[in-house]
Structure formats: C-alpha cells, structure tokens
Amino acid sequence: MNTENRTEAPLVSVIIPAYNASRYIAEALDSVFAQTFKDYETVVVNDGSADTPALEQVLAAYDDRIVYLKQENQGVSKARNTGIHYARGQFIALLDSDDRWEPGFLQQQVSMFQSNPNLDLVFSDSILFGATPLNGRRFMSVYPSSRPVTLAKLLNGDATVITSCVVARKTALLEAGLFDETRHYSEDFDLWCRMAAIGKQIDFSPEPLGRRRIGTGVTTNGIALTTNAISVFNKHRTLPGITAEHISIIDRRVPEYEAVLNLHLGKKYLAEKRYKEAGDCFAKANVYYKRWKLRAVLLLIRTLPGLARWIYCNARSRQAATA
Fold first, then answer.
1. 251 and 197 in a common domain
2. Cβ pair 97, 55 in contact under 8 A
3. Same domain, yes or no, for 22 and 155?
4. Measuring CA to CA, which residue among 65, 57, 58, 76 is closest to residue 19?
5. Residue 121: CATH number of its domain
6. What pLDDT, in 10s, does the model give residues 269-301?
7. Residue 160 to residues 53, 189, 211, 312: CA-CA distances in angstroms?
8. Cβ(4)–Cβ(86) under 8 Å?
9. pTM
10. Whole-angstrom Cα distance, residue 164 to residue 162?
11. 228-239 burial: b if 16+ Cβ within 10 Å, else e
12. Domain check: are 206 and 248 in the same one?
C-alpha cells in the first residue's frame, strides 16, 4: 500500500480507522472517491485488525488512492490520532469504516469554512441505516442540534456531533489534545467538549450529508458506552473555563446516565440468572425513572424470576429477528 507518496499537500485529509473492517470499508471508500470535492488525501489506519488479510485484500483495489498505515491494536482513539499526525491537510475529515458520505459532503463542509473563517469544526446531519428500528431516519430527528454549539449545549445533549460527519481544522484538534487514547468509548464527545471549552467554534449543516450505520445494540456495549459517558462527564468538571452552569448540567446528567447504566446491568444480570443483582439494579434505576413498568418488572423478578427471564429473552430474540 502507498505509505510514502507525499506529493503536494491537499486541503483535506480523510482519516478512516479500520478494525475488523473488511466487510464494509469498500462502501466507505467508494463514498470518499465519489466526492465532488477532489482536493483531499485518504488515510486508512489499520488498528491491529484481526481480519488484516481480508482487509488488505479489499484495500488492494484502492492501492494507488490511499495512504495505508498499520499499528498494533490500540483502539480507535489512537488510530485516529495516528492518522491525524500523519495527515498533510489543513482540514481533517473523519469517517468510520462502516459509514458513508453523500457525494457533496466535503464540498458542503469546506464551503462552511470558506464562508466563516472563524470556524474550527463543522459536522452535518446523517441518515441512519442498518439493523435498527431507526433505519431511514435522520440522526437530528432523534438527537436534535441547535445553534450556537456551545459547551453547555454539548453537555446538555442539545447538540450532538456526528463523528463520521466531522471536518475540523487540524490545528484546532491538536490544540485541544486530540482523542484521549485511554478511552475506547465517548472519546469523541470528550474531544468536542474540550474543543468548546478552549473557545473553538463549532457549527453544523442540517442537511443529511452522511449515512451512519447502526447495529441492533449489544448490552455489553451499552454498559461500556454508559460507563465511559459517566466518566467523561465527571472528568469535565475540571475543564478550563468550566462554570457553575456547566457543573449544574453535569450534576443533572450523571444521575440520568447512572440510571441507564443500571438498566443495562439489570438486563445483563437477568439474562445470566443473577436475579438478586438484576432486581437491585432495576430498583436503583427506578429511583430515577419512577415508572410503573419497572415496578412490575421488579415484582416479577422477586416472585417469578424464571418467568421474568423467559419474557426478556424472548422479547430480545423477537427484536433481533425483526430488526
């Protein structure tokens, strides 16, 4: 693969981290090479992928159009940072290996920087697709974003940056410290908040210029995602420029995420026949939610735990079959 063809620097560097990506990465790359905007380079970072032979077989078809980097498996944050450090472009465009862009994505996002030279990061809306009940919906119809994109809005969930639809100034990413390489989840949310905290300007296009693949969801991933989100919120209590308003938002969001975490843990323990732990987690979640359905679930776990597990496992199977 091309690793040293360093000709005149492009305006944009497209960074694609790849881990077990052989199944979908051709779709991502085809969407990059279909862009109407042409002043870019494409950097694929193999993060110690378990499917490296299959991945490299797919990438061979793009040999003269990509820069291919390999590293030991260190996580998506390190893979993105590796690509960013290597990149020659003034702007960094991020794309996950199983997502896609519409042909006008780069042209539209670059034009936003040209219209407002003070911008440091822009993102766009995206169409959700894949094995999900949300298939075909716009991301922002589920998670709306509003202007201006501030630290308070990021913390409060009033602006949600879609990472596979981000274009940012390389200098701004570097000044914010890039992705936290100790994190494998919520690393993107962490970085956007750090950028906002040091005054970097963020804006978005409401036009759906990307396509974001969503899976059916796995409980273990939900646990990891939620645990990391709580960790990031607590970490942000010490961000530069943090105010009483920001702390108030964090104090409100952390119990919300803790309740979600207890729901995930309760489902996990129920599936594992750990009925006491399941009941304890659902009870903790319902301190926040105060829902009669959760009270009914608790009653069933405490009186007929085997039936509760059977109902949950069958419901999950039906959901997977129809997703």
1. no
2. no
3. yes
4. 76
5. 3.90.550.10
6. 999 999 999 999 999 999 999 999 899 999 999
7. 35, 8, 15, 31
8. no
9. 0.90
10. 6
11. bbbbbbebbeeb
12. no
